[in-house]
Amino acid sequence: MKVYLLTVGSKMPGWVQQGYQEYAKRMPREMETHLVELPLANRSKNTNTQAVKDAEAEQILSAIDSLPGHKHIIALDVLGKNLTTEKLADKMAGWQMEGVCPCLIIGGPDGLAQKVLQMAAEKWSLSGLTLPHPLVRVLIMEQLYRAWTILQNHPYHK
After folding, report:
1. What is the pLDDT averaged over residues 39-48?
2. Domain CATH code at residue 144
3. What is the pTM assigned to this prediction?
4. Which of 2, 22, 98, 151 has the fewest CB atoms below 10 angstroms from its CB?
């Protein structure tokens, strides 16, 4: 199974790249992760936020179409459903059984456009707090690793 992390934004600080890589290298080969970075849409102080989100949505939809395999699209959104790590582990086991490739989408600073949210099979919220988008990459990778350790009865989760 491949897990895709589709993110809007590149040129991340070193701590983000290191954090992401730390958990990516811990993931087993049967659950390899792929980071797909998309550039932010151009912004200025007079930019129309909806136009920016729509431009980023086009990039996201195009990137999803280019990914191989049967994809299960999950949008990370503040209004999404909260999950426990144990529930994430259950979902991960289900994905493996069904042979789907989860594709988690992290939007840009303005969030995701409605067309992306509407086409997602699920919407998840990582917290009621507003999190910086670079931190979300590290957080979701750690949680994917933690969920995998639960499935393996590994002591990491304790």
Report:
1. 85
2. 3.40.1280.10
3. 0.92
4. 98
